[in-house]
Each structure stands twice: as structure tokens, then as C-alpha cells.
Amino acid sequence: MSISIDKDGNTLKISRQSKDIFLKTLVDNFSNLLVSTLEIHKAQNISVLPNELPIIEVSKAIMDRVLLIDNKNILNIEFDTSGLEENLVRYMFYAAVISQAYYKKYNTYQAVYTAVIYPGFVKLPTNIYTTEGSLLFTVKQIYVPDYINPNEIYNETIHLIQSGENLSLHKQNLLNFLLSPYGMTNYDDCKKFCEDILKFSLKTPQICNNDHIFSLVAASTASIIGDTDFFKDQMRSNERMKEAIDFLSGGLLSEYEDTI
To answer: What's the CA angle centered on 7, arms 6 and 13, to 5 degrees?
Structure first.
């Protein structure tokens, strides 16, 4: 998926990895809440670890996001929007690389947990790994619709804002709102839902006037809407939409981590 629009001599593009970029940013900004909301792991303390690890000096394995859980165990979170069974083999490889890399750091093998998050519009692949394997390797599959009710969250957000609440002070509600499109089980319905979210956000001062929140909301919806006339029209008519394009072109909102 990509969008390319020329304006004033500038070309803006949405990356093909836009869903990954957005969902990685959720981990950077909401790691504790995301892990608890999707029931990925019970943890008291979470910190983000490097996700680019060297392999035999000249190669790299790049995971989506790697977290340190309670200062001892390691959680690798992957975002899978294709639903291919073969990807599970790659995740096993990642776990082995993580285990080796952090053995060198801690001089002991850490427990490595793998969680794969799937949006509602992807068919959940058969989990080919169980605790019966020789490596005792498991993959926890996280199907977002099991945890997120999009329409309920949308209505809750509208009610929260109409009550005069500041969305930036309600991080759980904000996370749910950003995840809500990924809880839709039909892709066409999901795109229409995203259009409704964008229209609502553009006319809602509590969202549109907050650069950090609006960039996240626009990025969430843009990563799914993709190359459509609706999104292009919104971008041409609203300066704030350009932020989402710049964001999805490769920039992560890491600088917003402590300000949302």
C-alpha cells in the first residue's frame, strides 16, 4: 500500500509498512497498557529493548518490538497483517536470536515470550507451535476483536469528549480508540469506520488541536484506508493530514512518548 501525492513540488508517500509503523508506535507510547489490554503478559515493569540484533557479525534480524518484562524476561511483539502461517517459522528464528543476543548481555538465558497481534480483518493462521516441541517454543496469538469492540469504543470516546474530558489524560481510552479499527472483522467495513473516525477527529477540537493525538489518530486510520480518493481529498484540504503522511513515510513518534 502506498500513497503518492505531489503538492508544491513535494512528493509524500505512505510506506507499504504503514501498519507496522503505526503499531510499533503504539508499543513505544503505550507499552504497559497495550500488554495488559490485549492480555499479552502479566508484568509490573516494562521497558523497550533494541529490536535490531546482529547475526554472525554481518547480518541483522529486525523484530517489530522487543520489551524487557519485570527486569528479567523478554517479550517479542510482532504485528502480522498477512496471516501467513509461514511467518510463524520466522518468529521462532527471532526468539532464538533474542535468546542468544541477551545471553551475552546477562550471562544467562532469559525466558523469551513471543506474542503475535492480528487485526480482525486477517484470518488467524493455525498455530503450528505448542509446548510439545523440542525447543519448548510457543507463540501467543492475539486476535484484536477478542479484546476490542470498535463501535462501543467509538461511542465511549464521543461521550468522553462531549463530557468535556481531555482525551490525553485518559490513556486507556486513547489506546482503545487508536486500536478500534483493528477490531473490525470486515476490511471494507473497517475502511468506512476509519473514514468516520477521521471525520469525527477533524471536527473535534480536543483531538484536532492536539498535535500528538491527532498524528496518532490520523496515522491509525491512514494505515488502513490506504490509497483512496477519500484520504487524498482529506489530505489536500487539511494541513494536519500531512503529518500522518510524513509519519507513515518512516518517522516514528518516539519523541511523543512522554508527552501523550
So the answer is: 45
Q: How far apart are CA 100 and CA 186, in angstroms?
A: 40
Q: Hey, what's the cell of 64?
A: 517489530
What's the CA gap between 253 and 203, in Å, rounded? 23
- Give the model confidence (pLDDT) of 54-71 as tens digits: 554 445 667 888 888 887
Report the distance separating Cα 169 and Cα 68, nearest Å. 26
- Which DSSP state fits 21? H
pLDDT per position as a tens digit, 165-190: 888 778 899 899 989 999 999 988 88
d(CA 65, CA 48): 8
pLDDT greater than 90 at residue 32: no
Q: Residue 117 in contact with residue 41, Cβ under 8 Å? A: no
**Contact at 8 Å (CB) between 93 and 61?**
yes
CA-only gyration radius of the chain, Å? 19
User: Angle CA(218)–CA(223)–CA(225) in degrees, nearest 5?
Assistant: 90
pLDDT of residue 28: 78
Terminal-residue alpha carbon distance, the chain: 28
Q: Judge contact between 124 and 88, C-beta under 8 A.
A: no
Buried b / exposed e along 222-256 (16+ C-beta atoms within 10 A): bbbbeeeeebeebbeebebbbbbbebbbeeebeeb
The model's pTM is: 0.68
Reported in sequence order, the residue ranges of the chain that DSSP labels E, i.e. its strands, are 4-7, 10-13, 46-49, 52-55, 59-62, 65-69, 73-79, 112-118, 140-143
Contact indicator for 81, 70 with CB cutoff of 8 Å? no
